[in-house]
Amino acid sequence: MILRRGRACLLIGLGALAGAVVPARVRAQVPVRRDTIPGRRDTMPTRTDTLRRPPPKPPTDAPDTIKVPVPPRADSTVKNDSIRMGIVPLPKPVPRDTIKPPLARAEAPPVFEIGPPRIYDRTALFATGALTLSDLLARVPGLTEMATGYAGAPVEVASLGDTRRIRIFLDGVQIDPLNTRAQGAAPVNDVPIAALEEVRIERGAEEVRVYARSWRVDRTTAYTRADVATGDLNTNLYRAFFGRRYDHGEALQLVAEQITTQPDNQLPSSSALHLMARVGLTRGPWSADAFAQRSDVDRGPWVGHGNFFENRDTVPALLTRKTTAYLRLSNGDPDAGRWFQVIASSQGWRGTPTTPAGDTIPIPDTSAYENQYVATGGITRGGVRLSGTERLRAANHTTSNALSGRAAVDLRMVGLSLLAEQKSAIDPSRLEASAKVVPFDRLAVVGAVSRTGGGRFMRVIGDVQPTPVLLADGTLQSSSVAASGPTYTDARIGSYELAPRTNLRAEAGVRVADLWLSGGVIRRGPTTLFAPAEFDTSYARPAAARVEGEATARTAALRGRLY
Asked: Are 304 and 313 in contact, with CB atoms under 8 Å apart?
């Protein structure tokens, strides 16, 4: 007991002595438990460099080898699924050019008018609401439309009373009258506007020339469109387009349009089907394409309306087919720089009439074909144009060539166009000058003068049936060829003569707000006029013809935006 108490006193004394000797900073630390597993002593001594070389120093001018990470960009980040599958992304492909060089287009001469020129692009053509080219031409001063109805009806258009003085050009190919029943009348509806890209109407001194360009595409993105329309007189329209360019410059285009109408529920309906196809290829300034267009018109009988006790005139039904096709090789653009084109075309027309009830003499089918070869070229610099064209026609063992040339200057305040054409089998020679002067924004003056040559001409090229000839003095000359084969009538006039004549047109206009007020005078030389043969119900009576002298007319026009 005494020993236990003595050991406690000894420990207390030793603690007091340690508190007096050890500093307070050491006394505040918590005692750490001793590690029961002693660390192994390193038995491998450090090697000493026997050469006593100094330790190497790090270079001061070397680039930093430690790269600072930067946040990844969004377009360079690999998707998680690609990382798991070990797929390395390919480099981003360079986008292909979607616009290819356009296919060739025909020459388009300048148009001089009071106010805006009569040039309709594809958008404007559809905006006019016209279904046929005759609907569009009916708005031109000096042209008269004679129609028995609306879509699908027999129609003819005359310039100053002459149905032969309207000429139509499609991509440089002249659309000649091949319908023997129409007897030389301008085939205004043989070119459907659904497949056109531009229509340019040039008014000369006595004739009107229509320059049409077919529809083209220049993008690799496919262009498709479908139109469906309906209206009165049981009229329905279905229309569809497809066009695309490919990576190496190839082109493919398709157009289909169908129009049906039935003005009289007691008579059969009329319909028209228009088809167009084009394939082509471009290589730099070179262009080659093949174009084909067909129009099938199934025209029902058309009648005039009157009282119940009156007889109604009837135009018999007719089934027709018009085809136009060409192969074209071109270099350059007619609207810029040097250019030339070579075209080989073929046109065909076939008519199958329907024999009227009670008629025991059937009317035979008729068909006509024509090959046309065109070589044209020129140069365009700014507003100056120079061009020349050689046109060769071949139809039913009949050939005819015509050389023509044009020089034009079209500036903002003044314009001048000179046209010279050689005589062909169906058209007279022509020398024409057109001009415009616009000294102020609100004043314009335009005019044209032409001199046409005389000669003997065919109403339909290749029509060599034994028919009488109408002379320039109005007398008939009987054919010396004996009648052979099926002919409609010996009284039908197949050829006629024209005397040389001079024609003039002059107009002046002033602009008030957005309206152009214009007036002028038209002077036509002596000519021969034919009645519209398409409206001849029997197609057996002698065709009405009349030789007229010089005629003068005055014109007045109001053109522009009213509201």
From this structure: yes
Name the token pair of 46.
Answer: 């450090």
The whole-angstrom separation of Cα 535 and Cα 546 is 17
Residues in CB range of 402: below 8 A, 6 or more apart: 390, 391, 393, 421, 422, 423, 424, 427
Amino acid at site 401: N
Predicted confidence (pLDDT) per residue in 491-541, tens digit? 578 888 999 999 999 999 999 988 999 999 999 999 988 877 666 544 444
Burial (Cβ within 10 Å: 0-12, 13-18, ≥19) of residue 53: exposed
What does the alpha-carbon distance between residue 7 and residue 100 come to, in Å, rounded to a whole number? Answer: 113
- CA distances in angstroms from 490 to 144, 462, 478, 534, listed in the order given: 30, 17, 9, 18
Side chain identity, residue 291: F
- Cβ-count burial of 246 within 10 angstroms (0-12 exposed, 13-18 middle, 19+ buried)? exposed
Q: Checking DSSP bridges between strand 173-174 and strand 143-147, what pairing results, if any?
A: unpaired
Q: What is the pLDDT of residues 266-307, one digit of tens each?
A: 788 889 999 999 999 999 899 999 999 999 999 888 776 655
Measured between alpha carbons, how far is residue 277 from residues 254, 256, 325, 350 in Å? 5, 9, 10, 20
Record the tokens describing residue 283, joined without a space.
Answer: 């290589």
Instruction: Answer for the pair 269, 261: CB distance below 8 angstroms, yes or no.
Output: yes
Residue of 561, 552, 560 whose CA lies nearest to 142? 552
Q: Cβ distance 531 to 544 under 8 Å? A: yes
**Predicted TM-score (pTM) of this structure:** 0.80
Contact by Cβ (8 Å): 293, 276:
yes
Distance CA 168, CA 188 (A): 7
Could you tell me the sign of the dihedral formed by the alpha carbons of 260, 198, 122, 244, in that order?
positive
Query: Contact, 109 vs 211, CB < 8 A?
Result: yes
